[in-house]
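For the sake of clarity, the format in which proteins appear in this thesis is described at this point. Each number in the token line that follows is a code from a learned vocabulary of backbone shapes. One such record is shown here in full, so that the layout can be seen directly:
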Amino acid sequence: MISSQSSKASPRRRRRRTNTDKTAVTKLAEELARLRQQLATLRDEMVPFKVSKKDKTIKLTGWNLHIEAEWVDRMDGSKFQVPGTGNLLVGRNHKYENASNSVFLGEGHTAHGDAIAVVGGKRNTALGVASAVVGGVSNTASGSCSVIAGGAGNKAAGTQAFVGGGVHNVASGSFSFVGGGAQNMASGEFAFVGGGPMNTASGNQAFIGGGSTNTAAGNQAFVAGGTGNMAAGALAFVGGGSGNSASGTGAFVGGGAGSTASGPQAFVGGGSGNTASGVYAFVGAGRQGKASGAYAFVGGGAENKASGTFAFVGGGSNNNASGSFAFAAGGTQNEASGYQAFVGAGGHNNASGEYAFVGAGRQGKASGAYAFVGGGTANKASGAFAFVGGGAQNTASGALAFVGGGPGNTAAGNQAFVGGGFHNRASGNDAFVGGGIENQASGAQAFVGGGSDNNASGQKAFVAGGLKNSASGWYAFVGGGARNTASYAAFVGGGTYNNASGDSCFVGGGVGNKAGGGHRSGTFAFVGGGSYNTASGSSAFVGGGRANTASGLSSFTGGGWHSKALGRSSFIGGGNYSMALENYTSMVGGCVSQCKQEHVAAVPRPSLIIGQEVREIERDLEEMQMVQENSQMKAELEIQEAEETEKNWGKQSSYMDGSQARADAEYTLQIEDLANKRAGLAFQKAEERARILQDSAGTR
């Protein structure tokens, strides 16, 4: 109704439109068109997004979302990006005021710079240009283009540094890498730590594969793994183990524990406590081996040392090769200290001379240049080119001296020779002892073939053998027997207690014979044999018999008993108790004869003959008694010597048995007993003969 009334009344109320009204309408129409255009534009821009109030989501399908920082013009005409713009933020508490064109996903992240991504995790920080942190907690990527993949408390400070994960790892070197683990550090350029705890790769291009508390400090140093290892030298290598160190340039430790390769290109294969400190030094294995010389080698064993240049120790324990090119193959506590010295095996051996050699045994010493000890115990070769083949306590101290073996032998003279035996000594130059017991050749070119207690002290003196013989003069000769003496080119062929003391005198054999009276006295005296004969004159001659004497110059006693040729050129052919007192006297034979004038034989009265014969028999008995006493003393002396020898040999039971010496002494005692029995029978016969002569003298 109101509408109808209004329509009816409108004609009366209409008034005429003015120009002002037309202008207002036009403006309103234009504003409406503009608004309609803006609405159409806004509708076009909002087309890709679909908003769901229910799900509280905005969906963009088939479109790209482009976020870009704002660029502002500078007064100089250049442009710069406005920090804090162009970032994509997901989560809360992000600090992006100094970041641009960056992505924040997670919670509480911080970024400074351009083109940064902090994706996931909490409280991560990316400070380097184009750096990224992907996940984890409290990680910091401060180097340009650095990346942290995850973990906690990690830092990538170097340019293009990378930390794969783990806890409190640091990659501070340019292009450095830490794969994971805990408290690892890669500070060198291109340094690498694969994993494990507390490893450090500080050298450029250093590498640590894993393990714990390892360090690769040298450029291009390498530690594969293990615990507490260090590769400090450039190009140094430690394969594994614990507590190993390769500090030399190009040094190598394969494994083991507590080993060190400190020399350039030094090598330790394994073991424990080994050290290769020399240039190109080598320790293969074992424990506490040391190769300190240049190119030194220790193969293995325990506490071996190679300190000389090119020195070699193969194995064993406590061996030392200290000389240049020295060689110790094995054994224990051996030392090769001379230039190119050699010790093969055994214990406590020492080759200290140049080119010295000890093959084996114990306590052998080769100290002379080119000296040789083949083996045995406590042998010494101290002379140049000296030789000891074996045995015990032998010494070759002269140049080119030789000891073949046995115990306690000594070759002290230059080119001296001891073939063997017991306690023999060749002290003269070119002296020779073939063997036996306690023989001595002290003269130059002296010779003792064997036996016991013989002595050749004169130059070119000769003792073939026997017991306690002595050749003391130049060219003196003793062929054998016992207790014989030859001096001044004298000759004793054998026997017992013979003495050739004059120049060029001769005793063929027998017992107690004497030829000569000392140097230049009794020259060319001769005793062929027998017992207790004496040729004291120059060119004197005693052929044999008993107690005969040729004291005159060129005197002659052929044989018999108690005959004496006292005059010059005197002659006794034989017999008993004959005497040639004057010069040029001769006596063919007989009994109790005297010749005082030349070529005249005087026959004493029968009573004188009997009295003289009794006195001679009494002297004979006294001599027999002395012989018996000497025999007893000799037997006792042999027993004492046998007991002493048995004691000495008992201490060295490994060398010889003293029971043999006792058996020899007992055999000697049996011989002496037999001699005593014979002397007793002869004594009884002499007493009977003396009694008969006394009775005959009383009757007369």
User: Anything to note?
Assistant: Residues 401 and 415 are 4 Å apart (CA to CA). The chain has a mean pLDDT of 86. The helical segments are 2-13, 19-45, 606-651, 658-699. The longest helix spans residues 606-651.
